[in-house]
Amino acid sequence: MGEATTDTSARSHPGKIEQTAESRAEELRAELRRHEYLYYVLDAPVISDAEYDALMNELKRIEAEHPELLTADSPTQRVGGKPAEGFRKVRHSRSMLSLDNAYSADELRDWDRRVRELAGRLPVEYTAELKLDGLSVALHYEAAENGGARLAAGITRGDGQIGEDVTSNIRTIRSVPLSISADRLKKAGVPQAFEVRGEVVMPAAAFLRLNEEREKQGLTLAVNPRNAAAGTLRTLEPSIVAQRRLDVYGYFLLIEGEYLAAGQGATLDALTALGFRVNPHRERVHSVEEMLKFIDAAEGKRATLGYEIDGVVLKVDSQATQQRLGYTGRAPRWAIAYKFTAKQAITQLRDILISVGRSGKLTPTAELTPVFVGGVTVSRATLHNADFIERMGLLIGDWVKVERGGDVIPKVAEIVEDAEHPRGTVHFTYPSSCPECGNKVVRVEGEADYRCVNADCPALLRETLLHFGHREVMNIEGLGEAVVGQLLENGLVHHVADLYSLTEEQLVGLERFAEKSARALLGEIERSKKAGLARVLMGLGIRFVGERTAQLLAEEFGTIDALMAASAEELERVEEVGPRISTAILEFFARPANRTLVQSLKDAGVDMTAEKKQRSTQLAGLTFVLTGTLPTLTRDEAKEKIEAAGGKTAGSVSKKTSYVVAGEEAGSKLDKARELKVPVIDEAGLLALLKGASS
């Protein structure tokens, strides 16, 4: 492709060039769709992330050079980059009803009896599926010009009758195909226009990663994966949704508003043939005994699935029998959800332990008599902070009800007090000094946590080293807990910069380290020097500076020296940086030990630079609010142009707003601008300002 577009002998034949570009673009799109399907649907990747990125970047380059080749269903267009101002309400093609619940074998038997009585002579057998703990969506596909189908809309369940159009967010979910080939439609026996209903879930790994990031930023932790998935899907910024790594599992297929006539088992097979992710844990069952066997097996594997389930769904398989059974006012008679019992258990609180994290936060943990909860043995559970312990009135020796919060993180839910479970007798006193280094701990006004602020605290160093080597930070493979523990025990590392002065001789002397493993770790450490400024900023452990903020700071300042020299005002000019983050950055670099650490990293050859975004200062001091759809510019394009000229963009209108840029279907922001007498301009007015800024 590169040669075809630059070959001087072909310049007089633009048609030939375009044909070559078109052919290569289509080839790349097909290849990328295949790899997305293998990775996100089948969990069977055949190329590395780097190889995938290379294909994606080549396609982006072709589409940038030849915008007429860009298609709405291109893999490059998953993240549209246009935050919505709200979600349009949409009526469903047919009601998305809830299911009746069963909680015992007897209730299942009663339901099975009613089904068979109403079915008469029609066949009765069931498809048993896992009940995913997420939120339902309807995905609408329409005919594409190539004989296939393309994603037209993604709608939340809402109240079952009317949902919200979240198409821009659904498009970011990699397990949702943006287009489906004619061959797949033929194989599945499905026309070009159809609807898929499925469950949006947040995998356990993505949920834990989300909470780790929220904790770094000082934000409240998400309660459970279901709530996190629901909140994510209603986020007004598609790029954020893309980062959360949601999944969609299909379970219904509708054609012209009717369920597939072949039945539920055939529906799941058709969805698989179309390229949708379909849960593999399903089975045809014929009796209550077979249902219970499936339910027991599902509950047994619950802790190892990697996503949340809260029961099993049983559906009459035959569509003819479903029609005969019909519906009650709120649910189909032909389906039922068997709900697992709550993942709770009663055990005794033996002690309360305090651990010190990378940020110095003192976290209380309940030490429990081991108890089996939700498929795993739990011996420790989170107690959050001092306020939580005080509010609960928790005593050491208390009997407590433990649950796996969100079925992932064990927590103490409540105190149990009865004749069999008397109250404890020992009050817990929160430590006034750090259990690791003995220094006095502090509690900032307005915060719930106590913190150790001693930069030389060994606990801070241990957690900082582990964080520094994390794959999403400096990516030092092999720098795990065991290795970090040995490095600290042997006095080889006193801060992260010491990693870069380790020698093979030092490592070979440690337990389980041979020459090969020592050289491998040193090679990883050496490679990490090229990680760049954004990752170094994450690795330093500055409070509230996560991946996104680190990247924005790196692009704004370009070097660690420029960042360290920045004032609060300069920091707060950076997108998403407010007073809390700027204060944390200033306090971090004000400490001599931290400045010494930065210098040591420099001396070790760690790259602390980034490609700085070049910005004009012509619109400096002006704040713009964008509303509605502009004629030629996307929201992101307008935003980039404003910021490149030194201006700022904001999400809401206030007296400090300099201009509101209004397009078609401008919303309440336009009304607010008129109320506050803020100047309103259109795209032409914005472009005139930008032209003036560049002249």
Number of helices: 26
Question: What is the strand content?
Answer: 15-25%
- What coarse outline follows from CA principal-axis ratios? globular
Mean pLDDT: 87
Major sheet: size, sense and barrel closure? 6 strands, antiparallel
In order across it, which strands form the biggest sheet?
A: 7-5-4-8-9-10
Q: Could you describe the 3D structure shown?
A:
With 695 residues, this protein is of the alpha+beta class. The protein contains 26 helices and 26 strands. The strands form seven sheets. It has a six-stranded antiparallel β-sheet with strand order 7-5-4-8-9-10. Strands 2-13-12-3-11 form a five-stranded mixed β-sheet. Helix 25 (668-676) links the parallel strand 25 (659-662) and strand 26 (680-681). The longest helix is centred in the first third of the chain and has 28 residues, at 14-41. The radius of gyration is 29 Å and the shape is globular. The two termini are 36 Å apart. The model is unreliable at 1-19 (pLDDT under 50).
Summary, kept brief:
The protein is of the alpha+beta class.
Topology:
Layout: H1 2-6, H2 14-41, H3 49-65, E1 89-91, E2 100-102, H4 105-119, E3 126-132, E4 135-143, E5 149-156, E6 162-164, H5 167-170, E7 179-180, H6 182-188, E8 194-201, H7 204-216, H8 225-233, H9 238-244, E9 247-255, E10 258-259, H10 264-274, E11 282-285, H11 288-301, E12 309-316, H12 319-325, E13 335-339, E14 344-356, E15 362-373, E16 376-382, H13 386-392, E17 395-396, E18 399-405, E19 409-416, E20 426-427, E21 441-442, E22 451-452, H14 458-468, H15 481-489, H16 504-508, H17 515-528, H18 533-540, H19 547-557, H20 560-564, H21 568-571, H22 579-590, H23 592-603, E23 623-627, H24 635-644, E24 648-650, E25 659-662, H25 668-676, E26 680-681, H26 683-694
Parallel strand pairs: 2-13, 23-24, 23-25, 25-26
Antiparallel strand pairs: 1-6, 3-11, 3-12, 4-5, 4-8, 5-7, 8-9, 9-10, 12-13, 14-15, 14-18, 15-16, 17-20, 18-19, 21-22
Helix pairs in contact: 2-3, 6-10, 14-15, 18-19
